[in-house]
Write a structure and sequence with these properties.
The protein has about 400 residues and is mainly α. It has helices at about 10-35, 45-60, 65-75, 85-90, 90-105, 110-115, 125-130, 135-150, 150-175, 205-210, 225-235, 260-270, 270-290, 295-310, 315-330, 330-350, 355-370, 375-385; strands at about 40-45, 195, 225, 240, 250, 385-390. Helix 10 (about 205-210) links the parallel strand 2 and strand 3 (about 225). The protein is elongated and about 75 Å long.
């Protein structure tokens, strides 16, 4: 039978394909990613089961496996234990072989045991979805042919490659390789686009790695996360409840007293603090140093700026030697780099109690303001004004 139950135009079939694949993308980002993997929201049982059923039909993915692989990615990001880091495995392998990398990780019993807790384990999951993943895919193929005829085979083929390419390939690959960064995370995550529609908002991947438990992936006013739009719509209908979003930090004009609220704001917004430090302190100081340098010295400063700012770069022996050479020859650069390292101890040394850490932040700001380096002094005054915005 050439024609199915739905007789559509060429563009009608295109639209139907985009709609079906977009529902799958929404299911992945809302159900698998934000709800199951990170517990950033809760979903009404009916909505939760619809997403689970739809993913069984269109991907055959098992919830526990997907969640375990993704959680391991966050725990072991950019290391040899990361299931799909392009920094380790190479961009071509992840971009075009992401499905194979996912399947290899999903078959690892230790990964499932350690990272797959808290996922659905009811009768349907045990007896249908996990036991017979191929059955759902075959059912989707039959439904596509019934609805769209021969065109349904093409639609089905697109559905089958949609998630492996866009999620396993593009997000896991390009999302750690190209794009812009709002936050200096210790991994190589990037935002592919400020408009997250095609992949449900997952394009804002650096934002996600900075605040993994946030239900909202957009962070700047000019970024748009369509997955967040769907979540807010479900919440308005009483079908979802947001548990966590990224903190909104604001500058309180006139606030110059470092207190517990300041500390909390700095620590919670630490990746953005590091970004601002690189932009407001390190870059202008390096620029000023370059103006007074010549020849090889200018070129060396250009290379070292990246080493001083980027948190995702592991310094090998050669890079460390280059950085040390520059720092030894410039007291100003050594100072701003040392202050950055001291600032990071506020959140890396978590054993200290709140009062102790507040005192350390006070001391940091006081010493920075006494450094004689204008960029560092201005940054310290800004840091004193940090406070959390209620959202």
């Amino acid at each position: 039978m050439l024609q199915g139950l739905l007789d559509l135009s060429f563009w009608g079939y295109i639209g139907a394909t985009l709609l079906l694949t977009h529902i799958t993308i929404a299911s992945v980002t809302i159900f698998l990613h934000r709800y199951q993997a990170h517990n950033a929201l809760t979903l009404h049982p009916v909505v939760s089961h619809f997403f689970r059923f739809w993913l069984w039909l269109t991907t055959g993915m098992v919830t526990r496996e997907w969640v375990a692989v993704h959680r391991k990615h966050h725990a072991k990001c950019e290391t040899t234990d990361d299931p799909h880091s392009p920094q380790v495995k190479g961009i071509r392998r992840v971009l075009f072989g992401g499905l194979g990398l996912y399947q290899t990780a999903a078959r690892d019993a230790e990964t499932l045991r350690h990272y797959g807790n808290g996922t659905p384990n009811d009768w349907l999951e045990r007896r249908v979805y996990s036991r017979h993943p191929l059955l759902g895919i075959l059912a989707m193929a039959a439904l596509d042919v019934l609805l769209f005829g021969v065109a349904g085979l093409v639609i089905f083929a697109v559905q089958m490659i949609w998630i492996p390419f866009w999620a396993a390939g593009v997000i896991n690959g390009l999302g750690h390789y190209v794009g812009y960064r709002n936050f200096e995370t210790t991994d190589a995550s990037r935002n592919l686009s400020p408009v997250g529609i095609l992949i449900g908002g997952e394009e804002l991947h650096n934002n996600h790695h900075a605040y993994a438990q946030s239900a909202r992936l957009s962070n700047k006013w000019w970024e748009f996360d369509i997955g967040w739009l769907y979540i807010r719509t479900l919440a308005l209908l009483g079908l979802a409840q947001v548990r966590r979003v990224a903190p909104r930090v604001r500058i309180a004009r006139g606030k110059q007293v470092v207190d517990l609220e300041t500390l909390r704001a700095v620590v919670r917004d630490r990746y953005h603090v590091l970004t601002l430090y690189g932009r407001k302190v390190i870059r202008p100081v390096v620029r000023a140093e370059r103006r007074t340098s010549q020849g090889a010295g200018r070129a060396l400063l250009r290379r070292v700026r990246k080493l001083m700012i980027r948190e995702d770069i592991t310094l090998d022996a050669r890079a460390r030697a280059t950085l040390n050479e520059v720092l030894q020859n410039s007291q100003t650069l050594e100072t701003v780099y040392r202050f950055k390292a001291q600032l990071k101890t506020l959140w890396t040394h978590t054993a200290n109690d709140g009062a102790c850490r507040v005192e350390r932040l006070k001391s940091w700001c006081t010493e920075a303001e006494s450094s004689g380096i204008k960029a560092l002094q201005d940054f310290a005054r800004t840091l004193r004004s940090y406070t959390l915005q209620n959202v």
